[in-house]
Amino acid sequence: MYSALNLSPSPILRPPSSRKAVSNYRRKRLLFYCNSSSGNPMGSGSREPKLETSLSGPSNFKAPQPKPFRVRRDKLFDVLGASLAILLRLGTGATVSGYSASFVDKDEIPSDHYALEIAGFKVKETSKLGPRPEKPIEIYEYESCPFCRKVREIVAILDLDVLFYPCPRNGQNFRPKVAQMGGKQQFPYMVDPNTGVAMYESDEIIKYLVENYGDGHVPLSLSLGPLTTLTTGLAMIGRMGKGSTCTPSKLPPQPLEIWAYEPSPFCKIVREVLVELELPHLLHSCARGSPKRQELYQRVGHFQVPYLEDPNTGVQMFESAEIVEYLRATYAL
User: Fold this and answer.
1) Edge to edge, what strands does the sheet with 100-105 contain?
2) What are the Low complexity biased-composition ranges (predicted)?
C-alpha cells in the first residue's frame, strides 16, 4: 500500500534532523508505517493498524475564538478535578528549568512579544535551558500512569518537544510495539532518536533526560523516591482513571500537534482524550519561561494553551472543551 512512498522500514515516525525542520514539522508529510514489503509493522501476533488515508473535520466546523481564563459550565468539574494534581504535586512542571520572573515597565517589552501585563507592568520571564535535542524524544505512555506523569513533568521542566505514542489499556496500535522493541510491556518507554538510547523505568528516564538535556540535576520534587510516586498517583484521583482505557478510533496518517504543558488542567483534559483515542501527537511543551510561548505568540498572534494543530484536516484551534469535542467527532469510531 505504501511502497510507492519509499518509506524506511521503521514503523516509528522519525522527525527531521535539524532544529529548523522541527519548527516546521507540521508542514511535513510524515507517516507512521513501513512500506508494504515489510509486512506487519507491529510484529507477529498483533494486528496491523488501519491507517486512515482521508480525514476531514466535522461538517460545518468553525474553530472557536480563544477566551482566556474561561471555563465552560459543563466542563467545570472536569477542570476542578484536573486542578487537584497541581496542589498534590506542588506545581511541578509549571515552570521550566532556571525560571525567574520580574516586573518591568510595560514599554521595556515590545508589543509583539508575549508577556503578562499586570497593573501597568509586564512580567519579564527568563529561563536557563540545557542542550536542545535535534529530533523530538519519543515516549510511549498513557495519561493515568503515575510513573508516566513523572516523566511528563521533567519534559515540561526541560522544555522538550516530545512525540507521544499513547498506549492506553486495551490499545492495539502502539502498546504491542513496546513489547516488540524492549521485550516487555511496561510504561513509560522512551526512545531517543538523537542518541539511539531506548529505556524503561521512569527514574532512569528522568536521570537520562536531565543529564543530556538539562543541568544534570534531578529536581527535588522528582527525586523523593516512593513519595514522588505516591503523590503522582494521588494526583490522578481527581480524574478517576481518565486517559487510561482505549476508545476505538481512526488512526491518522500524521501526528497531531499540541502546545501544552503538564500541570495545566485545561491541557490535561485534552491529553486524556488524545490518549484514549490512541492519537500520536507531538507535544510542544511550553511551561512558564519557555521560549515556545513567544514562538506560538508570533505564529498566531495570541498565547493560550492548549492549542491544537491537526495537519490531517487543517484544523487549528484553542479552547480545551471544543478541542475535546473536535477530537471525538473526527477520530472516534
Assistant:
1) 100-105, 121-126, 117-118
2) 36-46
In a domain, 253, yes or no: yes
Specify if 68 maps to a domain. Answer: no
Task: Tell me phi and psi for residue 250, to 5 degrees.
Answer: -85, 140
Structural domains in the chain (count): 1
Residue 224: what residue type?
A: L
Domain that holds residue 279: 73-96+131-331
Q: Is 171 among the domain residues?
A: yes
Helix (H, G, I), strand (E, B) or coil at 155: helix
CB 132 within 8 A of CB 161: no
Average pLDDT over residues 309-322: 96
132 neighbors 231 (Cβ within 8 angstroms): no
Cβ atoms within 10 A of the Cβ of 24, count?
10
Q: Which run of H or of E encompasses 169? A: none
Per-residue pLDDT tens digits for 212-237:
999 999 999 999 999 999 999 999 99
8 vs 298, more confident: 298
CA distance 241 to 36: 37
Burial category of 319 from C-beta neighbours within 10 Å (exposed 0-12, middle 13-18, buried 19 and up): buried
Stated as kind and residue range, the H or E segment containing 165 is strand 161-166
User: How far, in Å, CA of 237 to CA of 254, rounded?
Assistant: 32
Under 8 Å between Cβ of 332 and 60: no
Q: What is the pLDDT of residues 40-94, one digit of tens each?
A: 434 334 455 667 767 878 888 889 999 988 899 999 999 999 999 999 999 999 9
Residue 17 confidence (pLDDT) above 70: no
Average pLDDT estimate for 189-218: 98
pTM: 0.86
